[in-house]
Pimeloyl-ACP methyl ester carboxylesterase (Pseudomonas duriflava), 332 residues
Amino acid sequence: MNRSLRRAFGTLVFLSSCHHVLAAPAVEVLGKDFTFPERIEGFPAKLSDFKGLQINSFMTNDGVRLSYWEAGKGKPLVFIPGWSANGAEYFNVMYQLSKHYHVYVLDPRNQGLSQHVDYGTRISRFAVDLKEFNEKVGIKKAYYSGWSMGASVLWSYIDLYGTTGIEKLVLIDEPPSIYSHADWSEQERLDAGAFVSDPERMVEGFTAMKPLNSLIAHSKVVERASLMDSPYYKNSESLAQAFINNDPTYLKLVLFDHVTNDWRDVIQKKIDVPTAIFTGCYSDSLQGQRWIHSVVPNSELYVYSQEEQGDHFLAFKNPIKFTADLRTFLER
């Protein structure tokens, strides 16, 4: 989940109605260059400084144009963003990792540069979209990383298709179940990482900015998202704000389904590939991340500290450490 609803986004029309994969440099697709507010040594000062960054698109079998960001060469590494998130927010992560891998970030339907539609707004359909993406770009086997809702999309993908095409799996701070059922024990709630007791009110809170108390959604995510406490994060968020037009009406459609899924059976029974779990001290579901580590064989747990920007946005606030840790895991 992200704080997109607080943003005053610019408008972008991304032209593509072809059933074939299209490819173009990012600056050409977005229509103009972008200068980042923070100058960071070793990172691009402008969007155009990231040579080889492309924004591409394809059409799904149910007629939805999905966009994806792409850079680099080598083994494919596919990122699935969280709810309301997009490839622009992965700019620094892509810049670092594209030196070593062929990196993709798929904008889910209704998010980022992908088409806004009022159908297929279920996590299971998002998993089908991922399968079709793999087929369109010719990926047979890849590393996959899901952040927040993106991890749920990967759990659904594994539930539907297994792990045959997944070489290694990376999960970033997503609870096995966001919704805490009334008949659960406190230990069950903690192990599931659940922090929401009323899904409908949580959805309204995140999409219509209606106030929530801690009994409805005991979450730090909005507070942590609003903290521009990292120059890397400030740059990637500024890029997203400049070019991405997220519509709360469409973002809302998938959220109830996302919140009410319980993935514990998939996590316990169906993950049989090397797995890395990233979380931090500010996570809403730290115990849930520890539970995933305890039940997934051959898994590794990375818990970032306060000094390491250990919150829901750790990959964007601390891309140097995140990409280094990720590479160590992938190359091991």
About this structure: Residues 1-21 have pLDDT under 50 and may be disordered. The chain is about 35% helix and 15% strand. The beta strands are 22-25, 54-59, 65-71, 76-80, 102-106, 142-147, 166-172, 275-280, 299-304. The radius of gyration is 18 Å.
